[in-house]
Amino acid sequence: MITAPESKTKSSVIAQSKSEWKLPQLVTELPGPNATRVLEQDARFMSPSYTRDYPLVAKRGRGAVVEDVDGNKFLDFAAGIAVCSTGHCHPKVVAAIQEQAAELIHMSGTDFYYENMPRFAEKLAVTVPGPEAKKVFFTNSGTEAVEGAVKLARYATRRDKFIAFYGCFHGRSMGSLSLTASKSTQRKGFGALLSGVEHIPYPYAYRCAHGHTAQTCGAEILEQLEGQIFKRLFDPEEVAGIIIEPIQGEGGYVPAPDFFLQELQRICRQHGIMLIVDEVQSGMGRTGKWWACENSGIEPDILCSAKGIASGMPLGAFIARESVMTWKPGSHGTTFGGNPVCIAAGLATFDLIESEYRENAGQVGDYIFQKTANWTDKHKIVGDVRGRGLMIGIEIVRDQKTKEKGPDLRNHIVDLAFRRGLCILGAGENTLRLSPPLLIDREQADAALAILEQCIQEAEGKA
Ligand SMILES: Cc1ncc(COP(=O)(O)O)c(C=O)c1O
Taking 50 as the threshold, does the pLDDT of residue 8 lie above it? Predict the structure, then answer.
């Protein structure tokens, strides 16, 4: 059933050289004795706000495989929440980190210069679509990239209102949390957030209230924006930015239709509003292009990145048209953002994604979509399979006709998959998220899908 990979690229051979780092291998009950000890200590000393779905206690990783503290190996289709783009501990990324750590660990790009910072900025800048030159600000995380984008949009427009979308996730610090409308738990108990933020529905084709398709869903939302929000709440001349994930991540791996993003760009241009594209999860090659927004032919004014940008080192960035990023020295800064070791990891990551993994993500992603194309026919609890490249969402329902959500079934599948050696995460209320490292080959895709199908079948028996 498992077919041989068609071709192996040079660095995927290096990264996954030994067969023991290719597929799952379980050697103890889960959790094993060492994991159990860590879980006990964690329960005593760690903040209870973390959201662990299953007891994986990671010790080391290579390629798309993670080994736990008891020697169990898991095929990792979560990639540290879509972060380990080049796989775990790619030798080229490790070497770049080690060399840089031995040379210079910190200097602070806010106050001093170092060679690799503008070097990486130049590489990133040219990947962002649009004729105008771009400028880059480096951060430590996704939420900081969004915070910076919000500040820049206010500064550049001298306006203070924002439009964001239900279901979107932009981070958990106070500014980005004001834009996030993913789960009320993320806001509950934290009091007042930024004022001047309105949320409108995201074009979610599978659940489109107007019965549209994945190509046409969303026209009514744009009407609501122009006909209601702009007429009754915010004059468009007061709106600094509209922020959107071109593929909703935490919200359930939901792509926005191309026409919707294009129309949003038109509306932004018409009113001098900054179009801010949050590509923290969808960017850095995951969809087969540098940025998911390229698939729709739009040119954002500001683009936010993080997660996969440095293979797991804490780095983020926001990238803006140069005529937008004109703020004065001191108007924005950071002590650690763009730290030399993170930038070194970013440069190595960039080269790997550019030379092979971006293309691989597109090809293996297409392969997975082909293999799962009939899952809605085969499995009565699979409502929808969607996404692009290696950003794949499988929505689990109780009933395909009524589309009643199956969050318990989804959670059960995630747990069963772990117990069979496959790490995945949920997204949204009832969607399975596949976000493996961009280097996976067909053999690993086959293995993951075989496990997943078994788990779906088992959960189906309980539906
Ligand atoms: C689209 C998007 N934006 C922003 C963030 C926040 O990133 P971070 O957790 O690095 O702050 C996330 C994290 O999941 C995200 O998916």
Answer: no
